Amino acid sequence: MTTHSNFLMEETWESPESITERMVGDHSRCDQVYAEGETALVGGQWEAGEKLLRTFIAGMQTHIALEEQVLFPAIEEATGMVEGPTSVMRIEHEQIRSLLEELSRALESKDDDRILAIGETLNILIQQHNLKEENMLYPMSDAHLKDKKKELLQKMQSLATQGNHGTSPLE
Q: Is the pTM of this model over 0.85?
């Protein structure tokens, strides 16, 4: 069971072959923590489920902050596209943030049915979002930012370890 509060930092930041590999790894870890939290909740382990879902929320907030504060500006600078894929991803991030906020409120009220309903909606949205990032945005990042990979990963690591991302209404 994953219980580490900063699970996005469990692997080193300099070892990935690509930005895609690093960010897809984050997606996988977020998916895993959510699934473990939901399983615990459904299995009657409220405390463990709540802790894991709060870890998931924090992980998603961190991941979104890394993209919006480091990766997206670098892509926009390298490609000159400000109203392109990153704009679409930011809109979807707002939708995800809204659902994360709802999930947090449902956890506070211990409303299992609401938690599961929000989780189902969130899961669908995140999976569709991740497909776009993994199949288009991240490969585009690798192509346009290959000379800046190490620098960008270091910036992301620094931001993630600070823990203050300034983009989340839940922080």
A: yes
